[in-house]
Design goal:
disordered C terminus; eight-stranded mixed sheet; 10 strands; globular; two-stranded antiparallel ribbon; about 20% strand; alpha/beta; about 290 residues
Length: about 290
């Protein structure tokens, strides 16, 4: 879709009478072949691609959800394209992806899904927030982990380190040529997304009326006060600080991250979001909610 790598993994429960759970047991899944299954969009972080979600996609599809993953513009197998590389443009890309998927489903004779659950990690969370502000009617629910709406939402030490990394990459690109220069310039541009973006006004979040979970780790690189600010600015926002977790929770403990997401989705949309069986208690966070 316009040079973007997009993967769609259909819900297992839509085609099978039983689906595996996170415990290895099997449960009877509802017959959803005649109705749309809930669609969840997963957005990765800076410098990553959709493969970071490989461990959790099977869990989500087994729970009856269709999963859409996208390589952000300039990341993974998605083309950089012309023009600026910004968080807002990546949000527009997501709108274009959903338009194309909507048309494909409709042309296939199936009932299109008007709204999706959007889950974003780090820069993916920033894109999710920008998308929700620009297209609030297309968001059924919103989950972000380690997101920020301005660069200063990041703790100062890391922000300074990121600026230094960007400066070194830019300087190195100017001292080289050919393919090496292009590679360094591309990397610097992606790192630059963290130094100058996003720029989302807190007041603009008032337009997002869908249920929203704004989560971060207790030891996250995002300031806890900033995470709470985002949640407070959303009419149906909720803040969750995951105990003993870092910014890298989706990478370090995918199952725990999955339950942060599904516990919330099952609560706000219980009629369409079946929940997989619970893993051992030690894998589940005991969140501080506000």
């Amino acid at each position: 879709i316009d040079g973007l790598r997009v993967d769609v993994t259909r819900a297992e429960a839509a085609t099978a009478g039983e689906a595996p759970t996170t415990t290895g047991k099997r449960r009877t899944a509802p017959d959803t072949s005649s109705t749309p299954t809930p669609v969840i969009v997963l957005l990765h972080g800076n410098g990553e691609d959709h493969h970071i979600f490989d461990p959790i996609v099977p869990v989500l599809t087994a729970a009856g959800r269709t999963v859409v993953t996208v390589d952000t513009r300039g990341h993974g197998q998605s083309a950089r394209g012309d023009g600026p590389l910004t968080i807002d443009r990546c949000a527009d890309d997501l709108a274009a992806v959903l338009d194309a998927l909507y048309a494909a489903v409709r042309n296939g004779g199936n009932k299109p899904i008007d709204q999706v659950d959007v889950v974003g990690f780090s820069d993916g969370g920033n894109i999710a927030l920008a998308f929700a502000v620009a297209h609030p009617g297309r968001v059924r629910s919103l989950v972000t982990y380690g997101a920020n709406i301005v660069p200063t939402g990041v703790k100062p030490v890391l922000l300074v380190k990121t600026w230094l990394r960007w400066f070194r990459l830019r300087a190195a690109s100017l001292l080289t040529c050919g393919q090496t220069r292009r590679r360094l310039h591309a990397t610097a541009e992606i790192v630059g997304l963290m130094t100058s973006q996003p720029r989302i006004a807190p007041a603009s979040l008032a337009a997002v009326t869908a249920p929203a979970l704004i989560a971060a780790g207790q030891n996250d690189v995002i300031r806890e006060s900033h995470t709470r600010l985002i949640a407070d600015a959303l009419p149906a926002g909720r803040c969750l600080i995951v105990p003993d977790a870092t910014h890298g929770l989706p990478l370090d403990d995918p199952l725990r991250f999955t339950h942060v997401v599904t516990d919330f989705l099952d609560e706000v949309s219980p009629e369409t979001a079946p929940n997989p069986s619970s893993p051992p208690a030690k894998s589940r966070p005991q969140p501080r909610r506000t």
